Amino acid sequence: MLNLLSNLKISVPDKIYIKDPESSDLGKRIIENSILLIEEIGFDSFTFKKLGVRIGSNESSIYRYFESKHKLLLYLTSWYWAWLEYQLVFATFNMPNKQEQLTKAIEVVTKTIKVDKTFSHINEVVLNRIIINEYSKSYLTKEVDSENKEGYFVVYKRLIMRLSEMIAGVSKDYEFPSSLASTIVEGALHQHFLKVHFSSITNCDKDVTPTDFFQNLTQNVLNL
Predict the structure, then answer these.
(1) Tens digits of per-residue pLDDT, 206-223?
(2) Which one, 54, 56, 99, 106, has least CB within 10 Å?
(3) Would you list the domain boundaries of the chain?
C-alpha cells in the first residue's frame, strides 16, 4: 500500500505560496521544521528568523517560498484539510450503505490523528495539534474575505461540502446539512482542545472520544 501511495501529492492552492515547498529538499525542510517549531513555541512567537536558525538557512531563503508566516500557516492548514479529505475519500470509497459511509466519515474528521508514513517530512500528529490550537488564526483576520475570494480556503470548504453531501444523502429532508457538517469539523477541534485544557466542561475524556459525541449527535439530529 505504501508503494501505491508513494507518488501521492497533497494539493494546496498555489496562490498561498511563492514557490512550491514540495519541489525541493529545502522546501520540505521548511515545512517539516515549521510544524515542529510552531508546536514548541506557538504561532505567535514563531518567526522566519527562528525557523532559519533551526534549519541552518538564511531567513531570506524562506521568503522565497512564503511571503509571510500567515501564508505559511495557510499552507499548513490547507495541507492538513487536503490530507484529511484524502483520508475521508479513501475510507468511504467502497461503502455502498450511505448511513455507514456517514458514520465512517465522521470518524475520519473527528478522530485522534495517527502518523501517516506516506509523507515522511510531515508529522501529522503534531500538525493536528497545531490545527487544534492555531487554526482560527488563519481566518480570524481583516483579510479573510479577500483571501476567501482568492481561493485560500477552497480545500477546507470542499471537505465540509463532502460531509454535507453525505448528510443530505442519508436524510434528504434535513434542512441544515452544511451547518451540521461545519459544526462537526469545527466542533471536533474544539472538543479535542477542551479535552486537554478545559476537561471540566466537556464529556470527552480517555473513554469518551469526540468521535463518540459527534456520531451520537448526528444520529439523534437525523433520527437515524
Answers:
(1) 999 999 999 999 999 999
(2) 56
(3) 75-221
